[in-house]
User: Fold this.
Amino acid sequence: MNRYTARLGGLGAAMITPFASDGACDFAALGRMIDYVIDGGIDYMVCLGTTAETPTLTEEERTEILRFTRERIAGRVPLIVGAGGNSTAELIRHIGQMDLTGVDALLSVTPYYNKPSQEGLYRHYRAVAEASPLPVILYNVPGRTGVNMTAETTCRLAADEPRIIAVKEASGKIDQIEQIIKNRPSGFIVLSGDDSMAVDVMRKGGDGVISVAANAFPSRFAHVVGLARQGLFDRAEEAYEPLRDAVCALFEQGNPTGVKAALAVMGRIENILRLPLVPATDQLMKKLEKSIKEYDLR
Assistant:
């Protein structure tokens, strides 16, 4: 275990961005959410990732959200910030302009839309890591980006660039994740990018999960991940069972549509998203209400 594994293993919360009725960022609600997930037992926080609806935020909003989040955390948990793009040079320029005071690492998604080759992915991440003042976590999510970074490319990057310290794997391919775990260099962190696969990934030797569901159910999910970190995988699966239906429902209509719906049911935020995303249907709202009530998930 290296010094990063202790800080960035376990349960990370991929934070939402609450919006007010006028469409502006709701910083009061964001502050309450930050306290809620930290009090619930998360191990670290991810700001400005997919779940934050980051593509719909202005540059000024992103800067203010990062500043606000850093100040509200006040050192209670480590902070990771999303920094990705499909132009390597532009991403490096953007990272160079960010105020990364108090940030522990960058989470950088594979370039999207232009679908680079594996060699292109390798060169992109090497360039980003060499220019970054902070450690870099790779983020592989082919369902969103249109390209899958193979286990071979991930392990090659991990071996060749010491500033690349981890991968958030959301390919949904357990065999690919197993290959990364088997062939990674010592100390390289493997995180599940899928809530439903968290225990399975940890059973196979992974280090934790960056979770959407932790926004809504932090204490329950922290308990699950805590058991898995102790090697008590059967007990972790049992603890996850009451969450299963609700977590599945969170992703029926996409992320963060589902988790914002759940949080609205729980009275924690307004159920507002920015176009092109729209709120959950009434049918999904009722399904989430039923699961939250039946399993006492509030």
Remarks:
- The chain has a mean pLDDT of 96.
- The two ends are 35 Å apart (CA to CA).
